[in-house]
Design goal:
Keywords: Carboxypeptidase, Cell shape, Cell wall biogenesis/degradation, Glycosyltransferase, Hydrolase, Multifunctional enzyme, Peptidoglycan synthesis, Protease, Transferase. This protein has 729 residues and is an alpha+beta fold. The protein is built from 28 helices and 21 strands.
Length: 729
């Protein structure tokens, strides 16, 4: 059943009929073979003269994002929902159905079926109800390519469907030239991959998924006939958004046509006609806010990948070109997201704070030695949905809470920054045995006023003098998170060297005030070692991953591979790494970082830590890390690492830095990060840390002290009610 045509189409038909009236009369009397010869000779075109888009179609295609297993679909990006597939992956009944429905003489004519065109013209001039077309599959293909070619102007694309005799003759010429050069199966393949089937589905692959939730190779006879019937009037006949009865009537028409072409028997057609309309509508996700239901936490990783993509010259010279490439280039992107690690990270983040809590626990996991980002989780839905009144960014937000950027500068990470001081000191030639009799308060050279000052100078204090004061070396200074030891050490090395070390390991200063301090006055940034600069879980995890990789820094990357629509690997996403630390320096820092998590250094110098429960969660597996708490316990942080993974989590209120999360949550943050590490290393061979050389160990010259306080000491106190839960780092 053909759809009624517009008055403009009728006018074109009459005009075209008048121009070709003589041809119509002549054609009716010509023998078949002579007609075919006339068709070929009248093409007046050659393959060489064809537009480039007809030789190599630049049809927009959907890009797919998968997890690191290459199978778990995260989402897709598209302007046009299309994915090309070879003819071998299309069910034979689908090929037969489209030929029967649209061009029964497809395998007999030379691209432009003059006999069929003449028949349609005569019928249309005589009238009698519905219009007849006359365009072959090849002519329809030409029209579809020219009207969707992204390399042509809007005017040129519109001209591809102009109701003019000149346009129709040009279409015939192009079709004849293609037929002589490509072969029927190639033309059929191209047609099936570009035709519009309604409901936003372009090409048979998208249509098969959209209507039936299956690949085109699995289409049944009834399903193929239904889809073939849609192309004449896709939106009107679509059984999803159009007229289901019309769709079924068109299915019957196609099945009868298949009987007429001997593709199927009458019995097969009758059986297919009797089948009920069994749709399985499958919307295709589009973009990061359209990830599959129940996995909207993947949206944060997806958004990070998109931001990375927009910086890659391989996808275009400008940001706009790269965005368009993602949405129309037909790329297959295997990302670095590990579904198991992500699931644990999301579970742990929401265990500490629920989705409807104003406070958040963003967590990031990075693979040392490659920089591949394995997980990005937070107790938020990645969604543009409205939030309840008074709740600015929870439970829904698309702000990059884990990676930073846009309006997110990050969060203070407290004593985790002592790692950068220790590295700078070791690099300067100092050893792990560098000792200092750490006082409860340390007057410094930095001018300051207020409660934290001593005679007009900044005067940092230890949180728990009974546990932190006294003679300390790097091992127990780091393990017990002794503020006065590390402020003293930073003064010996030079604060600018500590700031430079942090930047070398990938700490980015997104806050304007931090960036200005780092650039103009780093030498006087006395509190930097206590983690007053804003950072993100991703930056922090990657910085510690550099230590885990024995000094090899790798730029964070969210992909494993990117493949173009033609199957060619795009040269992006490979690890971009460089050595930024002497391996021995990194090994020495790691040896000291065994102390906070309840393990022992290679030289037996650990005597207490702020996160000793980590050792039990990892069941004694080699691990290192550091806790951190900011002023007034505004944030609580833990970052841990093994040779295979580094994970960081920061508890904070992203909308209100003045809202202190409190010291009590630190144990929960430690537990959450440790369990993400446990998932990441499960099933992997246990890998030991390499001990540093004696050159960086020095000569410990006092007996090793043993723990005298309970385990898991909080390293940034506030409440005087419980000294052991109030450790300031």
């Amino acid at each position: 059943m053909a759809a009624p045509r517009s008055p403009l189409s009728r006018l074109f038909t009459v005009l075209f009929a008048g121009v070709l009236a003589g041809l119509v009369l002549a054609v009716a009397a010509l023998p078949g073979n002579l007609l075919l010869g006339l068709s070929a000779r009248s093409a007046l075109g050659s393959y060489a003269a064809l537009p480039a888009s007809l030789k190599t179609p630049a049809t927009p295609q959907r890009s797919y994002l998968y997890a690191n297993d290459g199978k778990t679909l995260i989402t897709t990006f598209y302007d046009v929902n299309r994915t090309d597939v070879p003819l071998s992956e299309i069910a034979p009944v689908m090929r037969q159905a489209i030929v029967a429905a649209e061009d029964r003489r497809f395998y007999d004519h030379g691209g432009a079926d003059l006999r069929g065109l003449a028949r349609a013209l005569v019928a249309n001039v005589k009238g009698g109800g519905t219009e007849q077309g006359g365009s072959t599959l090849t002519m329809q293909y030409v029209r579809n390519v020219l009207k969707t070619d992204p390399t042509r102007t809007a005017e040129e694309r519109a001209a591809a469907t102009d109701p003019t005799v000149g346009r129709k003759i040009q279409e015939i010429r192009y079709a004849s030239a293609l037929d002589k050069s490509l072969g029927k199966d190639e033309i059929l393949d191209r047609y099936l991959n570009i035709a519009y089937f309604g409901s936003g589905a372009y090409g048979i692959a998208a249509a098969s998924q959209r209507y039936f939730g299956k690949p085109p190779a699995q289409l049944t006879l009834g399903e193929a006939a239904l889809l073939a019937g849609l192309v004449q009037s896709p939106d009107a006949y679509s059984p999803i958004s159009g007229d289901k009865d019309e769709a079924l009537a068109r299915r019957s028409y196609v099945l009868d046509s298949m009987v007429a072409t001997n593709a199927i028997t009458a019995a097969q057609a009758a059986q297919a006609k009797a089948e009920p309309l069994a749709l399985h509508p499958t919307p295709q996700p589009n973009g990061c806010t359209a990830v599959s239901q129940g996995h909207d936490d993947w949206g944060y990783f997806c958004d990070y990948l998109r931001q990375w993509w927009l910086t890659q010259p391989a996808f275009g010279a400008t940001v706009a070109e790269r965005e368009q490439a993602l949405r129309s280039g037909g790329y297959t992107v295997v990302t670095s997201l590990d579904p198991k690690i992500q699931a644990t990270a999301q579970q742990q983040a929401t265990k500490v704070y629920g989705y409807d809590n104003k406070r958040a626990l963003p967590i990031a996991a990075v693979q040392p030695g490659t920089g591949r980002v394995l997980a990005m989780a937070v107790n938020r839905h990645y969604s543009l949905a409205d939030n309840p009144a008074g709740q600015a960014n929870y439970p829904n937000t698309v702000n990059p809470l884990i990676s930073g950027g846009a309006s997110v500068d990050g969060y203070q990470a407290g004593s985790t920054f002592k790692m950068f001081t220790m590295l700078a000191a070791l690099e300067s030639g100092r050893t792990l045995s560098t000792g200092f009799d750490a006082p409860a308060k340390l007057p410094t050279r930095y001018a300051a006023e207020g409660p934290g000052s001593c005679d007009g100078h900044w005067c940092p204090a230890n949180a728990n003098p009974d546990w932190m004061d006294g003679y300390r070396m790097m091992w127990d200074g780091f393990g017990r998170s002794v503020n006065t030891y590390f402020v003293w050490l930073a003064e010996q090395v030079g604060q600018d060297k500590v700031v430079e070390m942090a930047q070398r390991l990938g700490i980015t200063f997104r806050a304007d005030s931090d960036a200005a301090f780092a650039k103009n006055d780093a030498r006087n940034w006395g509190s930097f070692t206590l983690g007053v600069a804003a950072t993100t879980p991703l930056d922090l995890a990657n910085a510690y991953a550099t230590v885990a990789a024995e000094g090899t820094y790798c730029t964070p990357v969210p992909v494993v591979s990117v493949t173009g629509a033609d199957g060619t690997k795009v040269p992006v996403g490979q690890p971009s790494c460089k050595r930024v630390l002497d391996p021995d320096v990194a090994r020495a820092a790691t040896d000291a970082a065994r102390c906070p998590v309840g393990q022992q250094s290679a030289f037996g110098q650990c005597n207490g830590g702020t996160a000793t429960g980590v050792n039990d969660i990892l069941d004694g597996r080699p691990v290192a890390g550091k806790t951190g708490s900011s002023e007034q316990n505004s944030t609580e942080t833990f970052v841990g690492f093994t040779p295979q993974v580094a994970v960081a989590g920061i508890a904070a209120n992203p909308d209100d830095p003045a809202d202190s999360v409190g010291s009590a949550v630190q144990t929960k943050v430690i537990d959450a990060v440790a369990r993400v590490i446990a998932t990441a290393v499960k099933g992997q061979p246990e890998k030991a840390f390499v001990a540093p050389s004696h050159d960086l160990v020095g000569n410990p010259h006092r007996p090793v002290e043993r723990p005298t306080v309970p385990q898991n000491q909080n390293d940034d106190p506030e409440s005087p009610l419980d000294r052991w839960l109030n450790r300031r780092g």
